[in-house]
Structure formats: structure tokens, C-alpha cells
Design brief:
476 residues; alpha/beta; TIM Barrel; eight-stranded parallel beta barrel
């Protein structure tokens, strides 16, 4: 029996292939080197995938310096043609705060819970229309932010000429285009939370943990598709519309995961990046507790899944990614503080804690949320751990949530069962109260602190139409 011939080595086989196909071999070698270098770069730089390619285009309406003032007001009681009422409401708030606000925010269901879409000049629920709200903003010298809430988000995945979503979005964008003035469009905000149908899950059993039966079956990829579909119509028909992507600052429930990137729709359809961040004492602080003066800064640089006991910050740094790396202007679209829901406390304790949480001052390391958010080096009344103007200069707008509402709230004292506050009174308003029937006890103090903090040239009352020069940034 003849001796079997040895199998050719892999090296000899590769050399033979290269001799027969020299051009193809060179292309394969070049591609392999490129992939290896790319993987090496990503391992070396975890932000490599976030870096933009080429110069960053200037963001529309981005101020060169400073931050716009703004507010979200309660329009839930207004119906139809409420132009005069809206103008009065906005004018009253300007007088209350002593500053003309540059921005006012409005909520619109698109589509609503029945699947009906609003048009620019008619709201499907009979509420204030985009046209009426925008006209009221123009009357008081402000720019509108329209928050589009997709209550049936899957309808926006069927996006083709003739489909309900396509035609409705096209018509809405055309209405904004005909209005022909700047308007911010904030589609599907807080998509990374556990309370909206356009998020991945809704915490129905209120245990702050994702359970499979709570899934909405609307994934991050679905959200990105819906966002880009809506954005395409505004890009085409409303050139003065400014597109804003706005997650929530925290991510509660489920495994350790990225709280932002899985929903980011892409640099080409995001002009501004928003963030909603509130302070209401998630861990149910005791009545004599102090609020840390670095809490707001922590929300910009850490996420809710960070483990404090570890030496390294494993958080996804929101400000670093979207401001420092992507060079996007940041808008704090909703912010406020309260302890008014705390029915485990007496009314007097709630009132004192709400005041402290908003405007308290104990020392230069511990102070209220309002100082956390609006504190700058231009304010001489106290020192701040993280002044907005020097540490977060890419925060270009801040809107106070001047609304009180009933809502189910939960909190957790470490080591204790979850505490649930059903139909709780959440009053974030400057000058608000601790129950629907109680008058505001600290309104004058809260108004005075807001006026003192924002009464300098860093905070802007008018939106600037001009933009700064592009920032030269390339992906490494």
C-alpha cells in the first residue's frame, strides 16, 4: 500500500493562492489590515464610534456663548383657539421670573392613543394646535419647542407614500415650512425610560425591574427608524425646523446596558441633543437631608447604573459623548425639583423639604437644585462646585418644568421595600405647593433665587439666528 502523501500546509496553500490571484490577494490583505487597525483603535478609544467624520456643521440657532432661558407651562386646560390665553400665560411667566424667556415647550400626541394624527393647524385631541402655540410664542418673542409624542409608535414604521403616517407627517412638516420661522421638533422624548409606549418597556408592576411581560415590542432600532422617518419630512419640507433628540438622564431596570446609544438616530438627523433631568429624591431622603451641590453635574457625567463602590466610572458619560465628542449643543428640555409627593411626611415637612430641594443652602458643597442647574461664575451670591458656564459650556438652553400634576411615583430607601405613592401631587413649579389645595408657602423665596441666578448676561432671552463657524473634528 503506497505511503499517503502529506497534506499541503496552510502556508503553502495561501502562497499558491496569492500567485494565482495577486490582485485579489492584495485587496484582501489591505482589508484585513484595515479591520485590524479599526478594532485596535476601538479597543484603544471607546469613543471611536462616536466621533464624527470631517468638520462638524454648525447647529442651527446655537448661541456662541451663553444659554437660552425657557420653560414648559401647563396648557392641559386649554382647548382649540387659545391664542390669547397662551400669550397671557407666557407673559405672566416672563413677569414672574423677571426675564423674557427665549423658549417655550409644548406637547402634542402624534399620533394619539386612537391612532389619529394632528395637523399643523388642528390637534387630533382638540387641544392647542402647533400653529396656535407657535403663534403665541412669536407674539411674546420666544421660539417654540414642539414635543411630538407617538402614542401608537408602530404606525410610524409603515412609512411610504399613501400610508397614514407618511401623509400626516408630510402635511405637518409642510405646515411648519409654510409658517417659515424657527421651531424645534423634539420627537419621542425620554425613549430610554420605562413609562412611554415608544420605549422598550413600561414598568406596569412598578418594581423598577424589567419583566418580560412589560415589553412594548418597540425596540431601540424601531425607535431610530420612526425618528428618521419623521425627521426626513422636516428636512425636506421645513428647512427652519431644528431637530432635537432628547433622552432621559436615567435608565432604571434591566441589565447593565448603554442608556443612550441604542436609541441615537444619527448625527445627520440630530441638530441639538436634549436631556430631561429631575431631582425628587429617588432614595426618599429624610426630612433633615441635604442635597449635594454636584447632583446636576453627576447626571450629565454618570448614568443610573454606575456602581459607586467601584473605583472606575463605568457610566456612559452623556455630556462627554454628545457635547465634547459629537460637538452637539445640549438643551436641558425639562428640569425641576420637588418633594411634594412625599405623603410619608407631614405637610410641614413636605413644604420644608420641597423648599430645600429647590433653593436650600447649607454650605458651598450642599445646596438646592436651582443653584445646581443655573449656578454660574457670574453669580456672586455663592460658590458652586460645577458652574454651568465653565464646566458645561455646551449646555445652550435650560427649561424649567413649570407644571404640577398627579402621577404615580415610586422610590426606594436602601435596604427597604419599594414605596409607592399613588396619584401623587408632583409640583415642580417655582412658587408651587405641596398639595393641590394648599397655597405655595415659599413662592417669593423661590422666585427671588431664580431671578438672582438668571439675572446676568450668560442667560439669554432671545434666540440667536446666526450660528458659529464649523468645528474641525475628524474621526481617528
Amino acid at each position: 500500500m503506497p505511503e499517503p502523501r502529506p497534506k499541503p500546509s496552510r502556508l503553502r496553500g495561501a502562497l499558491a493562492f496569492m500567485k494565482r490571484h495577486p490582485v485579489l490577494s492584495l485587496l484582501l490583505f489591505t482589508a484585513s489590515v484595515g479591520i485590524a487597525l479599526s478594532l485596535h483603535a476601538q479597543n484603544r478609544d471607546p469613543l471611536a464610534g462616536d466621533r464624527p467624520i470631517g468638520p462638524v456643521k454648525p447647529a442651527p440657532l446655537e448661541p456662541t456663548q451663553g444659554a437660552y432661558l425657557g420653560a414648559a407651562l401647563d396648557t392641559s386646560g386649554l382647548r382649540g383657539d387659545a391664542f390669547a390665553a397662551l400669550v397671557a400665560q407666557m407673559s405672566d411667566y416672563n413677569r414672574l421670573t423677571g426675564r423674557k424667556q427665549a423658549l417655550y415647550l409644548h406637547f402634542l400626541q402624534f399620533p394619539n392613543e386612537k391612532g389619529a394624527f394632528s395637523s399643523w393647524d388642528h390637534d387630533a385631541n382638540g387641544w392647542v394646535s402647533a400653529q396656535t402655540f407657535s403663534a403665541a410664542c412669536e407674539r411674546v418673542g420666544a421660539t417654540p419647542i414642539l414635543t411630538l409624542e407617538p402614542m401608537q409608535p408602530r404606525t410610524l414604521l409603515d412609512f411610504r407614500p399613501g400610508s397614514a403616517a407618511f401623509e400626516a407627517t408630510k402635511a405637518f412638516a409642510q405646515g411648519a415650512g409654510k409658517w417659515n420661522r424657527p421651531v424645534f421638533i423634539r420627537f419621542g422624548h425620554e425613549m430610554n425610560g420605562s413609562w412611554y409606549p415608544w420605549g422598550e418597556w413600561i414598568d406596569k408592576n412598578e418594581n423598577q425591574v424589567f419583566d418580560p411581560e412589560e415589553a412594548t415590542n418597540f425596540s431601540g432600532a424601531n425607535y431610530i427608524t420612526a425618528y428618521r422617518n419623521v425627521a426626513s419630512m422636516f428636512r425636506l419640507y421645513a428647512p427652519k425646523a431644528v431637530l432635537m433628540w432628547c433622552p432621559n438622564s436615567g435608565l432604571v431596570g434591566g441589565e447593565r446596558r448603554d442608556p443612550f446609544r441604542r436609541w441615537y438616530p444619527g448625527d445627520d438627523v440630530v441638530d441639538w441633543v436634549g436631556l430631561d433631568v429631575y431631582e425628587r429624591g429617588f432614595f426618599l431622603p429624610k426630612p433633615d437631608a441635604h442635597l449635594w451641590g454636584g447632583q446636576f453635574a453627576y447626571n450629565l457625567t454618570h448614568d443610573a447604573a454606575d456602581v459607586e463602590s467601584t473605583p472606575e466610572n463605568e457610566s456612559v458619560g452623556f455630556y462627554n459623548i454628545y457635547a465634547n465628542v459629537k460637538k452637539k449643543p445640549i438643551m436641558i428640555c425639562e428640569t425641576g425639583a420637588t418633594q411634594s409627593f412625599r405623603t410619608d411626611l407631614t405637610l410641614a415637612q413636605r413644604a420644608q423639604m420641597t423648599r430645600n430641594w429647590k433653593i436650600g443652602y447649607w454650605n458651598d458643597n450642599e445646596y438646592g437644585w436651582m443653584q445646581n442647574v443655573y449656578g454660574t461664575t457670574k453669580y456672586a451670591g455663592q460658590k458652586f462646585l460645577h458652574p454651568l458656564d465653565t464646566e458645561f459650556p455646551m449646555v445652550k438652553g435650560v427649561l424649567w418644568f413649570q407644571i404640577a400634576k398627579h402621577e404615580d411615583v415610586s422610590g426606594r430607601t436602601p435596604g427597604q421595600p419599594i414605596a409607592r405613592f399613588k396619584d401623587a401631587w408632583l409640583d415642580y413649579r417655582i412658587g408651587g405647593s405641596v398639595s393641590p389645595d394648599a397655597p405655595g408657602l415659599n413662592g417669593r423665596q423661590e422666585i427671588d433665587v431664580y431671578r438672582a441666578l438668571t439675572g446676568n448676561s450668560y442667560f439669554l432671552s432671545d434666540v440667536q439666528p446666526k450660528t458659529k463657524s464649523p468645528v474641525a473634528t475628524t474621526r481617528h
